[in-house]
Structure of Protein CBG04959:
Amino acid sequence: MSSIIEMPEFVLEKIIGFSNFKDVLTLRQVCRDFRNFIDDLKDSKLPDSNFKEMEIVSKKDENKIVFAFADFGGTIYRIEYSEFGNSRNFQETWKIFENSNIVDVAIRDLELVLRFQKSKLYRIYFDVNDFQLSPDSSIYKLSVKLSNLCIRINRKIKTEQLYLKKCNQSQIMKFIQFTDPEALEKLSFFADDDDIDDRIEIEIDDIAKTEQWKKAEEFKCDFQVLNLDARDICHFTSMSIKTHSISASDLEFLKKTFINSSTFVYAFFELTIFNGNEIISNLWGPAFITELSRNWYFRIKDLEDEVLHIEIRQNFINFHVFEWRYVLTGARVQDYNES
């Protein structure tokens, strides 16, 4: 009796093409011949896994790697890789890998998932804080092997949003280049709410040179940003940035940029210090002063119903576009041509 694997290749390709992602993974586990046939197929002949979100996390305290994949129907697939026992847990089923490094097992699984992912992700999230892991743990090498994976599959991940948690400078550069710049819309570098530390710093120079940075529309960063240049951030429609200080000339440049933009929404800067109040007053004229802040309002080119509000407080500066009706009573709105 003939085996199904002996069927003509084009027939098997049709079967796989009409199957869903989970069916093909199941088929791949049937025997070595099926696994080799599927692994040798071009990515274009594989079905779309059609995931909405992916999370890749390493857990120091548990010496564990966790992958989570969510589809558009709300189903979440969670896979845990434990250094203790060299094991993988998927849907309550454990498998021991006696002769394999568990990080290599996780990377192989992720490579397979990425081969099936054709549609654009809403979000991909990395929390692989290996610079705080002990070097004698195999998980220490996870981020390096992730970056090597990107090179090996020779394609970028299409995702609208990239979230990086507690990553160092090197990790940010690696993971940002994981993504397709044509798909990326939002970059977020963040820490836990109870773990934001001013000593965590990132230099923005090299990151700002990447196509992913230049194409993105939104940026949020909980860490101290060093070497901030207004020309590197003026293309964002919304941003939240923590930095030591910002110059009055950069604020003037941003103001001129934003009043010429029909898409800008807000820019929030949390500062350690700001010494440019006198220069700003010379540039923008007298502020409308409240108990807590100094305020300026400017018309926006080609927008009749909205204004740019700039608010300066002791340790933050906020640029915000809103409707005329929210202008403080008694405040002056400067004409576009005055600016």
Summary: The longest strand covers residues 303-312. The two ends are 84 Å apart (CA to CA). The chain has a mean pLDDT of 86.
